[in-house]
């Protein structure tokens, strides 16, 4: 009848453990019994050696050996027999320097030459051996016998009967088998306990099912477009899928390392480590905006999920740009309507020369503002951004100034990056100035080139940034904007008037993106105080400009090249 191998994991583990336990016990018993015989022989030889050394140490035996004759009733025979009976030895033979026996268990052999070669013992060396003599196989020891003055006068040979050695071996086997059986029983009970525990943990599934589940998990983890990172209770990365590695910029060998070893310090590391509470937390990794959630597990670890929100953020910024353009158009429409009404009134009053002068002044002022920008900022995208922002800023009662030090050639490597930086800084400055009334509110923009390095500086007349918060405002979740609702649980007002911070679920991504973009270029972003009040944001972007000195086109207000 064929024995069927169990299908469940617990049954297979039990059968495997029982087989391994039984095999180990049989092997251990065999390996123990194999050297046991030689070990017992060795013990018997050393026991014989101890008896022989004790006999040779008796000074009376050496003296009688040299002073008497070898007889069955002589003093040497009596001393040797006394020691033999006391120790249980098979025999004790005392011989002289010629190899003649002076003592023996069989008294008739006294006076005869020994049956084995005594040469080594008579030369002064101790001998241990298993040998066959006149009394059969025995474990024997031979030691030299010396007189009181150190002269070698003979030798002592002691034998332990080999039958007693074999009896010890046979007597040890049942006890050894008993111990082996007890150990096997304990192993069986332990295997059964482990099997039951495993059955509860695996819910009785089979190995094939586990393999299929693992394959499905690997396919799911590495196939989904959401990053997944699992941590153990010590904070080491236990699992990371391909998308998480891409979003975080982590190498595939990060498994087994801590977050601090795999990621630079910052908000992303704090969010994944659980040092920031909340759901759908925004963080920036490289140039990507991520939404992170962290769920603890029962074993003390955690699983964090990451969603890439960069595209949504870009769409949001494009929407903001569109709204800004609409605001600029609305502001221009409102401004043009007022000017047309004024022009209409002048015409109806018959002040035709004044109307013509009014139209000329408006045209010259508009052209002067646009030409001032295009003459100092050659890149069309940056020029258009400044022209559009000037209309929005003016509608809110704030002046947008171009610093006299501004001069940026049109050899920008990626104008979109500079548009992102400059747009964020102007919007941030406008919110700060609008929330902090002053007699002459303004925003001043400075763009200049230092070799291939672009330097962007935006100053304002707002409340400024307290020194203790000049690093925090560049982290995700911090904002210089006042919360929309007073007392909102997401808002944490700062002691500085007009300055507040909001949670990551609100705003606080713009300045963080500015710093990350600057760091990507190998530059920096910082904020300092402006003389007279306000803040100065400075962004340095190395290698943002090409080394080509070819003259670039300037653009007029109408967008025509000249």
UniProtKB/TrEMBL annotation:
Residues 310-545 form the Histidine kinase domain. One of its GO terms (molecular function) is phosphorelay sensor kinase activity. One of its GO terms (biological process) is regulation of DNA-templated transcription. This is histidine kinase. The chain crosses the membrane at residues 12-34. PANTHER family: SENSOR HISTIDINE KINASE DCUS, TWO-COMPONENT HISTIDINE KINASE. It is an enzyme of class 2 (transferase). PROSITE patterns: HIS_KIN (PS50109). It is found in: Cell membrane. Its EC number is 2.7.13.3. One of its GO terms (cellular component) is plasma membrane. Keywords: ATP-binding, Cell membrane, Kinase, Membrane, Nucleotide-binding, Phosphoprotein, Transferase, Transmembrane, Transmembrane helix, Two-component regulatory system.
């Amino acid at each position: 009848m064929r024995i069927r191998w169990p299908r469940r994991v617990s049954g297979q583990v039990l059968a495997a453990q029982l087989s391994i336990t039984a095999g180990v016990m049989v092997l251990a018993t065999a390996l123990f019994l194999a050297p046991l015989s030689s070990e017992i022989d060795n013990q018997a030889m050393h026991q014989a050696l101890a008896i022989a050394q004790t006999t040779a140490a008796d000074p009376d035996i050496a003296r009688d050996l040299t002073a008497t004759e070898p007889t069955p009733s002589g003093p040497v025979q009596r001393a040797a027999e006394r020691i033999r009976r006391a120790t249980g030895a098979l025999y004790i033979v005392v011989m002289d320097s010629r190899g003649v026996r002076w003592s023996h268990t069989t008294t008739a052999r006294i006076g005869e030459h020994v049956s084995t070669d005594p040469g080594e013992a008579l030369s002064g060396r101790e001998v241990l051996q298993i040998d066959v003599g006149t009394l059969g196989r025995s474990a024997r020891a031979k030691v030299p016998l010396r007189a009181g003055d150190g002269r070698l006068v003979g030798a002592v040979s002691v034998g332990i009967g080999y039958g007693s050695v074999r009896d010890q071996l046979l007597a040890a086997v049942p006890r050894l088998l008993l111990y082996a059986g007890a150990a096997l029983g304990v192993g069986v009970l332990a295997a059964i306990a482990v099997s039951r525990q495993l059955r509860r943990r695996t819910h009785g599934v089979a190995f094939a099912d586990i393999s299929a589940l693992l394959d499905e998990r690997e396919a799911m983890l590495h196939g989904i477009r959401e990053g997944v990172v699992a941590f153990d209770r010590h904070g080491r990365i236990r699992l990371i899928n391909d998308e998480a590695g891409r979003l975080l910029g982590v190498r595939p060998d990060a498994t087994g390392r801590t977050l601090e070893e795999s990621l630079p310090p910052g908000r992303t590391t704090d969010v994944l480590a659980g040092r920031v509470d909340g759901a759908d937390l925004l963080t920036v990794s490289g140039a990507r905006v991520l939404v992170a959630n962290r769920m603890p597990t029962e074993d003390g670890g955690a699983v964090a999920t990451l969603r890439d929100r960069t595209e949504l953020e870009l769409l949001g910024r494009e929407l903001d740009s569109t709204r800004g353009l609409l605001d600029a158009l609305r502001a221009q429409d409102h401004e043009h309507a007022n000017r047309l009404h004024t022009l209409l009134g002048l015409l109806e009053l018959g002040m035709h020369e004044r109307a013509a002068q009014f139209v000329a002044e408006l045209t010259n002022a508009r052209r002067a503002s646009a030409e001032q920008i295009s003459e100092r900022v050659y890149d069309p995208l940056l020029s258009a951004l400044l022209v559009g922002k000037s209309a929005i800023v003016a509608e809110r009662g704030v002046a947008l100034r171009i610093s006299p030090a501004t001069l940026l050639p049109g050899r920008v490597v990626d104008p979109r990056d500079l548009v992102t930086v400059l747009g964020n800084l102007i919007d941030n400055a406008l919110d700060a100035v609008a929330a902090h009334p002053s007699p002459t509110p303004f925003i001043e923009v400075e763009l200049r080139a230092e070799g291939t390095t672009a330097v962007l500086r935006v100053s304002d007349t707002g409340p400024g940034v307290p020194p203790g918060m000049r690093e925090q405002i560049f982290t995700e979740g911090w904002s210089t904007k006042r919360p929309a609702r007073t007392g909102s649980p997401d808002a944490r007002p700062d002691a500085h008037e007009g300055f507040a911070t909001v949670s990551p679920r609100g705003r606080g991504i713009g300045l963080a993106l500015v710093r990350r973009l600057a760091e990507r270029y190998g530059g920096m972003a910082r904020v300092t105080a402006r003389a007279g009040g306000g803040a100065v944001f400075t962004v340095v972007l190395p290698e943002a400009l090409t080394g080509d000195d070819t003259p670039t086109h300037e653009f007029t207000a109408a967008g025509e090249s000249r």
